[in-house]
Amino acid sequence: MTGSDLLPLAVALLIGLAAFGSCIGVAMSGMKLLESCARQPELMERLQGKFFLAAGLTDGAFIIATGIGLWFATANPFAG
């Protein structure tokens, strides 16, 4: 079994694990946002801005992992 045979599995794991981690991270931070807005409603606007910044950075990591995975899938640097 060569590296090019395992490439689809590696790309699937790269994209799948990044998507799973991103979804869990955004869900947990959204949970904490709702929790903190329920405790102190006067801070809701400031908390929302920070939440969307953090969610964007978390999703950015997923987009970068997807780009690297698709680059490996098309360029196939392990073909030799």
TrEMBL record:
Keywords: ATP synthesis, CF(0), Hydrogen ion transport, Ion transport, Lipid-binding, Membrane, Transmembrane, Transmembrane helix, Transport. Residues 9-71 form the V-ATPase proteolipid subunit C-like domain. Its main location: membrane. The chain crosses the membrane at residues 6-30, 51-73. It is a multi-pass membrane protein. Pfam families: ATP-synt_C. CDD domains: ATP-synt_Fo_c_ATPE (cd18185). It is found in: Membrane. It comes from the Bacteria. Belongs to the ATPase C chain family. This is Lipid-binding protein. The gene is atpE.
